[in-house]
Design goal:
The complex is a heterodimer of chains A (295) and B (162).
Chain A: E1 7-9, H1 14-24, E2 28-31, H2 37-42, E3 50-53, E4 63-65, E5 69-73, H3 78-82, H4 85-90, H5 92-98, H6 104-109, H7 112-118, H8 124-131, E6 135-140, E7 143-148, H9 149-152, E8 153-155, E9 158-159, E10 166-173, E11 181-189, E12 199-207, E13 213-221, E14 228-229, H10 231-237, H11 244-255, H12 268-290
Parallel strand pairs in A: 1-3, 2-3
Antiparallel strand pairs in A: 4-5, 5-10, 6-7, 6-10, 8-9, 11-12, 12-13, 13-14
Helix pairs in contact in A: 10-11, 11-12
Chain B: E1 5-11, E2 14-20, H1 26-33, E3 52-55, E4 58-61, E5 74-76, H2 89-96, H3 106-119, H4 125-132, H5 143-161
Parallel strand pairs in B: 1-5
Antiparallel strand pairs in B: 1-2, 3-4, 3-5
Classes of the chains: A alpha+beta (295), B alpha+beta (162).
């Protein structure tokens, strides 16, 4: 099994990469860690005439944590983020989501930027970025811009990046306030561990000392063509103490107005059902964690 | 388009060079150009784990890494695991615990376990299961492979203490 022939270019800087991309546009593909692109090349599902490899570029492999957010360079390996102590404290949901991405060997090579740019609807990292109201930094010869996650993912493997733009940085905004406690949970159903999720849910709860929910984040992935926040469910939970009725209302709200994918792996009805079940599990676990239980 | 390029690798401690097309995988480079046929190709799209090797200290699926991307890197294949004629504890344990039948997937399991124990000598059963989750075997039913991994872990810890 061989990819169709292509020209391989490994620029030494982002500017140079943007230059090459501007010249070739749609006929080029960016190669980051290759864990999604190379299988597609091997199966000839994509046949770019030019492959622009980012591996030689310095300065796009970093994790920077501050009060407000976690910034990650696009070529940072997923395993580096998974095992980063500062990320574990600032943004625990990232580590939990990453453990569900493929297998350790995949995360050794796979990059954070690659997963975001690929925009697989079942992928965990795009869902985390959406849940945290994150930003995607795009660079081209025309300049640099930041796109909010909710506007970045447009559909199945489709993003707001123009053909001449490449992803250089991801910003994951931190959730929570001093004095309040947070809990996060990621739940998914897949046929085998490491397989693509048939459906998944992320829940984050910020709780006041008395157990009242001050803020909530609920997102589903692998259900629709893009990961989406379920704002109705978030509103149902905010202000509550996550009693059984609130959780039932939030679960119903999360499963409402979905436009689920329907394919041979799972029907739309099954995906919508799983969305509800997984939101409930994630929400209950996140709340227990936020109020000091085991999660 | 796609003119062959010359690459240099350090494979199992030896300096090697090869002239490869950009579209060739590291697995094909190792097997076809360097004669290292211990790295097996099963699915060729990153699912089965048979082609697992170590590149720059981290495991990689050699079918998902273009040979040109590994240019200048240190690579370890299953051929580099044993110490001459003496099997590595992982290999010895797979043999003793009947952790293989046809053996096709075995190089991937050997390299995966070797790399795990080198990085985390204290890996417990949960770690081992998480790492082996990326390797498929159609013969053994996995229980003997897990038993072999646990036996190898015990032996390696014993050797570290001695």
């Amino acid at each position: 099994m061989k990819p169709a022939p292509f020209e391989y270019v490994a620029p030494g800087s982002i500017d140079e990469a943007a230059d090459v991309l501007a010249r070739h546009g749609d006929s080029a593909k960016i190669l980051a860690g290759g864990q999604s692109l190379v299988p597609m090349l091997n199966m000839r599902l994509v046949r770019p005439s030019v492959l622009i490899a980012l591996r030689r570029i310095a300065g796009v492999q970093y994790v920077a944590v501050d009060e407000a957010c976690v910034r990650i360079g696009s070529m940072t390996r997923q395993s580096a983020v998974e095992h980063d102590g500062a990320v574990r404290t600032a943004c625990p949901v990232l580590g939990e989501a990453l453990r569900l991405v493929g297998h350790p060997v995949i995360r050794h090579q796979g990059t954070v930027g690659g997963s975001i740019a690929h925009a697989d609807p079942a992928a965990e990292l795009p869902a985390v970025l959406v849940a945290l109201d994150g930003l995607v930094t795009l660079v081209s010869t025309r300049g640099r811009r930041s796109v909010p996650a909710r506007e970045f993912f447009l559909g199945l493997l489709a993003t707001a990046a123009e053909p001449d733009e490449l992803v250089t940085e991801l910003v994951f905004n931190r959730v929570g306030r001093p004095g309040l406690t947070c809990g996060w949970a990621v739940e998914e159903v897949s046929r085998r561990h490491g397989d693509f999720a048939l459906a998944g849910a992320i829940a984050g709860v910020v709780a006041e000392p008395g157990g009242r929910v001050a803020d909530a984040r609920i997102a589903v992935f692998g259900v629709e063509s893009t990961p989406t926040r379920r704002v109705g469910a978030e509103a149902a939970v905010t202000g509550s103490r996550c009693d059984a009725k609130t959780v039932a209302d939030a679960t119903a709200a999360a499963a409402r107005d979905l436009d689920p994918l329907d394919d041979l792996h799972a029907s739309g009805r099954l995906r919508a059902h799983l969305a509800g079940v997984l939101v409930q599990r994630a929400l209950e676990r996140a709340y227990r964690q936020a109020v000091g239980g085991d999660g | 388009m796609g003119e062959p390029v010359r690459i240099a690798l350090r494979v199992n401690g030896e300096e090697r060079t090869a002239t490869v097309e950009p579209r060739e995988s590291l697995a094909d480079c190792l097997r076809e150009h360097l004669g290292l046929t211990g790295t097996h190709l099963g699915c060729e799209h990153g699912v089965c784990g048979a082609c697992t090797v170590v590149v720059a200290g981290r495991t990689a699926r050699a079918c998902l890494l273009l040979a040109v991307e590994a240019d200048g890197s240190e690579v370890m294949t299953v051929e580099g695991v044993a110490d001459g004629e003496t099997l590595h504890p992982v290999q010895q344990a797979l043999m003793e615990e009947h952790g293989l039948q046809c053996g096709f997937c075995t190089p991937g399991f050997v390299v995966t376990l070797y790399a795990l124990f080198r990085e985390r000598p204290d890996a417990d059963e949960a770690d081992i299961r998480a790492h082996l989750g990326g390797n498929l075997c159609r013969c053994t039913g996995y229980q003997n492979i897990l038993a072999a991994a646990l036996a190898a872990a015990r032996r390696l810890r014993g050797m570290a203490r001695a």
